[in-house]
Design goal:
heterodimer; A: alpha/beta; four-stranded mixed beta sheet; elongated; B: 298 residues; alpha/beta; four-stranded antiparallel beta sheet
């Protein structure tokens, strides 16, 4: 077992301390963080916290009630002016960023005019609307005022009625989709490393030295472990960034969507149950590919094909969304490669039956075992095929796994 | 108990018979030469011996039985296909491979420092393997083969790419390892190295044993067909001499079938020729090699 761990540690340190790995590791959270930062910056540029004036000809704001504010929202000061002339002077002297004129016939015509030199901040406009609404509802009973202030309450319900969202999917609802995508990215990156690790042994001509130092099972096992470690390092880093983003977004930026994630563990476990055998399946197939091809470039091309197979549900997302429990969705759930993303998508629109998750996990596991068997054969047959491809027929067709390949001298 | 014993092994790849019938045994503590022309099946024989390939027929015993994971730590192998991790530093590459042979990392580091010093590679330990010359890589391969102090060392063409100085270094090392009790199986084309180093040899051709045994005995076995003479005067006609060839400060007389060196000596003395030098010409391994292979082809 020590040799297996030596191989695992070697593979892990060989990749994890590479500049390219650190760059990839940091690039995903940096990219997401950069995008969020850009959005926050753009939003902040649209806000203006200078006071806003108003001239009330309708008597709506005679005894003004301040507008309700969000958890981290900064209040805008609303300054009353007796005349439009006073308001205009304040605007020109830049005491206020804009002013509203509530028309005398406001209660009949709902007419309000806005005057500004430079378009006022989006926050100022929003708060003034809330200000008007709060004062319009001032004489209503509290429950009616509260309901009216709450605005539209839309419930989105799936056709089978088994899943619904109020106002939009929660973080908990999209978590399985995000998890399945994260697993696919992780799986493709990890299995790419694995294929490269096997191809490297062939390119470096180290197969014979290794074959006389440890068993192929320990060699492949060690490589898989090392690369799983690399994948877990990536996943841990991403999860850490995601948790930090949720905490920061929820508590500091006050993003309500992040404050109440409402995690539903059932779909998350379903994704994990399918993801683990899918991981083994892809890894084993990559070993088989690495053992089969002559050069790493060829392997990368075949690896891209696997990526396309995993992404098939993306092209069928409309079908999955409209009919999450119809035959096409069920078939995609059960098939190898497509199941991982399909389970994630279906969890968003419906509740995937337990039997389908169990059947999918079983099929993935069976395929994974088959792929490991195939990888073992391919490795033994292909390890001394330098610069030569191994044909699939050779791997499957030959009965004796340890007798092929090689040269005479 | 032999260090390695191979009995009637056969191995085919598709329709190609790489090894048809090879048998030999390697004594502990000897340097054993595996010889043969290109494509004769030497490398396949070594791979079967080391369990890289399973034989189609025959049996292999190594260090007293079939190959096992534990035995792999007691065997050092330098294959024909030289392999080191080109993008790793020399030190890291050799340390990793030695840990796969069961050497603890600390001990491996200590041994490696000694070997790098001896092979004049210490100042290059931080360089990537691909930055080293072929000769340096060859020396690194040899270090990798012996760093874990194996009982049995199997080397395929150990002198390739080495200059005379490093060739001598490797030869001295091999003798030293033998004296310390290691067994060495060496496959090579360089017959003069075999003559200098090997105790016993196996010559294979077309996947079959052609010649096997003690090197001195084999050479004696193939001697008797020529004598070296130096005379005070001219060489007279001697019955049974087929060919006369100049040979350094002497003359080489090639004898006909049925003529012994004693017959030639008696004939010279009978003709009252003053014989300054008379010795049976021991054939070189090169000559034996060519003769055996040509006879085999015929």
């Amino acid at each position: 077992m020590r040799k297996l761990w030596h191989v695992a540690w070697h593979e892990y340190t060989l990749n994890v301390f590479k500049k390219s790995f650190i760059l990839v590791l940091l690039s995903v959270p940096l990219l997401i963080g950069g995008n969020i930062g850009l959005i926050v910056f753009m939003v902040s540029r649209e806000n203006n916290y200078a006071p806003v004036g108003y001239v009330d000809h309708a008597g709506l704001l005679a005894d003004p009630i301040p507008p309700p504010l969000g958890p981290s929202e900064e209040a805008i000061t609303f300054l009353p002016f007796q005349t439009e002339e006073e308001a205009r002077q304040a605007l020109e002297s830049q005491t206020i960023q804009a002013y509203y004129v509530v028309a005398p016939d406001y209660f009949e015509a709902s007419r309000i005019e806005l005057f500004y030199l430079k378009e006022p901040g989006e926050n100022a406009t929003r708060q003034f609307h809330d200000f008007i609404r709060a004062n319009l509802l001032a004489d209503q009973p509290p429950e009616i005022a509260h309901r009216a202030a709450a605005g539209n309450d839309v419930t989105v319900r799936t056709p089978d009625g088994r899943r619904e969202f109020h106002g939009g999917p929660t973080l908990g609802a999209v978590a399985p989709v995000m998890l399945s995508i994260a697993f696919i990215v992780l799986l493709l990156m990890s299995s790419g490393y694995l294929m490269q690790a096997v191809v490297d042994e062939k390119e470096n001509r180290t197969m014979e030295v290794l074959a006389t130092s440890l068993s192929p099972a320990k060699l492949i096992g060690g490589k898989v472990l090392g690369i799983v470690g690399i994948g877990l390092t990536q996943l841990a880093a991403w999860l850490l960034v995601a948790i930090l983003a949720v905490l920061l977004g929820g508590s500091i930026l006050g993003i309500e969507w992040l404050q109440n994630p409402n995690l539903d563990w059932g779909p998350i476990f379903a994704v994990v149950a399918v993801a683990i055998p899918s991981y083994v399946l892809a890894s084993a197939l990559m070993v088989a590919v690495g053992s089969t091809v002559a050069q790493s470039q060829e392997g990368q091309q075949i690896g891209a094909l696997f990526f396309m197979l995993f992404m098939i549900p993306l092209y069928a997302i409309r079908v999955i969304g409209e009919t999450p429990n119809a035959a096409p969705s069920v078939v995609l759930t059960l098939l190898p490669f497509t199941s991982l993303m399909t389970v994630g998508f279906r969890s968003l629109f419906s509740v995937v039956p337990v039997w389908q998750i169990a059947a999918s996990a079983t099929i993935q596991t069976a395929c994974a075992f088959g792929a490991v068997w195939l990888a073992g054969r391919a490795f033994r047959l292909g390890m001394l095929r330098y610069g030569q491809r191994l044909r699939l027929g050779e791997i499957i067709g030959k009965a004796r796994v340890t007798t092929e390949g090689g040269s005479r001298s | 108990m032999y260090a390695a014993e191979v009995s009637h092994i056969a191995k085919s790849f598709g329709n190609t018979q790489a090894v048809a019938d090879v048998s030999f045994a390697v004594e502990r503590g000897e340097i054993f030469g595996l010889l043969g022309p290109n494509g004769s099946g030497k490398t396949t024989t070594l791979r079967v011996l080391l369990d890289v390939f399973k034989p189609d027929g025959g049996t292999v015993s190594i260090l007293g039985g079939p190959m096992s994971e534990e035995k792999k730590n007691r065997i050092g192998y330098m294959p024909e296909e030289r392999g080191l991790y080109q993008d790793l530093s020399l030190e890291r590459c050799l340390l990793y491979l030695s840990t796969l042979k069961g050497v603890p990392a600390k001990e491996a580091r200590k041994r490696l420092a000694e070997h790098l010093e001896r092979f004049d590679l210490a100042e290059h330990k931080g360089k990537k393997v691909k930055e080293l010359s072929k000769g340096m890589q060859q020396k690194a391969q040899i270090i990798n083969t012996i760093l874990h102090r194996p009982e049995l060392i199997v080397i395929d063409e150990p002198f390739t790419a080495l200059d005379p100085l490093n060739t001598q270094l490797v030869k001295d090392l091999m003798k030293e390892l033998r004296d310390e009790g290691s067994t060495i199986i060496m496959s090579t084309h360089q017959m003069h190295q075999v003559e200098e180093l090997c105790d016993r040899i196996l010559l294979i051709d077309d996947g079959r044993d052609m010649l096997y045994g003690d090197l001195d005995q084999i050479r004696r076995q193939y001697s008797g067909h020529a004598v070296l003479v130096r005379l005070a005067g001219d060489l007279p006609d001697v019955e049974g001499v087929e060919q006369v060839l100049p040979h350094n400060n002497a003359t080489k007389l090639m004898l006909a079938e049925g003529t012994s060196p004693q017959d030639v000596l008696q004939a010279l003395i009978a003709q009252r020729v003053i014989v300054e030098r008379f010795e049976i010409a021991i054939p070189t391994l090169d000559e034996i090699f060519i003769r055996v292979v040509e006879e085999g082809d015929a």
